[in-house]
């Protein structure tokens, strides 16, 4: 759940205007993509923990769990 919360917060980051904003956005996007991939790989098989599906849907994590 901590990884899901981290992912949600990173997606909400507002970068300040500046010459390096685009570079920062690209780095942040790479981090978010990597974290999302890691979380998806760590998720147990569908149906093995029904309560976890609700958590993952709440946070919108994982390709097979995205629902919100």
Identify the notable features of this structure and list them briefly.
68 residues; mainly alpha; 3 helices; elongated
Structural class, from helix and strand content? mainly alpha
List segments where confidence is low: pLDDT < 50 over at least 5 consecutive residues.
64-68
Helical fraction? 55-70%
How many strands, which pairing sense, and closed or not: the largest β-sheet?
Answer: none
Report the β-strand fraction as a percent range: under 5%
Given the C-alpha coordinates, what overall shape results? elongated
Q: State the distance separating the first and last CA atoms.
A: 16 Å
Order of helices and strands: HHH
Instruction: Count all strands and give the number.
Output: 0
Structure explained in plain terms:
With 68 residues, this protein is mainly alpha-helical. 62% of the residues lie in helices and 0% in strands. The protein is built from three helices and no strands. The longest helix has 22 residues. The protein starts with a helix and ends in a 9-residue tail after the last helix. The C terminus is likely disordered.
């Amino acid at each position: 759940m901590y990884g899901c919360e981290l992912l949600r917060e990173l997606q909400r980051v507002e970068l300040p205007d500046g010459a390096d904003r685009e570079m920062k956005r690209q780095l942040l996007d790479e981090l978010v993509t990597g974290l999302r991939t890691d979380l998806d790989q760590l998720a147990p098989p569908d149906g093995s923990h029904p309560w976890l599906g609700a958590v993952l849907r709440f946070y919108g994590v994982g390709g097979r769990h995205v629902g919100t």
